[in-house]
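User: quick one, fold this
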Amino acid sequence: MDVRDKTAHAIVEFLATVGSHNIAVANSSGVDYIFTSAVTILKFDRTTSELSQVAELPGVHDATAVRHPLTGDWLLFTGTGETSIYNINDPAAPQLLYEGTGSEGWTGWHEQTLVPGLVDGRVILLLSGESFVGTPNAEGGLPDSVFVVNVTDPSKPELVGTWK
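Assistant:
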């Protein structure tokens, strides 16, 4: 959407895809990428205003793209049954670094937020599931918890704390 003229918005490009519940964006090596929650990876060419799909990963709900503060690698946090971590330095060829099993002691497929900078020399990821607690007619909702996970080595995430 071109919104330079606030009175006359214009669609720049359209590409039908699944997973617009939330999106993450990254500019990697001068190229704009969009990550949908389903997880489709799109490339946007600013010169031609064209959008193209470059990859698709397993994932059903929510994705976060961030730079690792120690390595500078682009990472994508998403999940199906539980959190998965991909290296997306080349978004057209994502590399799976970690795939959760559900036995880690956390629930993190809904919200994944990397704490800016380092905490005691560690890279910390905050995870939370979608609890629905407090939502009318929600039965069996998960308890509201934030899980603190050390992802200094994203291929070996480690639970270091829980906050309720």
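User: anything notable?
Assistant: The first strand starts at residue 23 and ends at 28.
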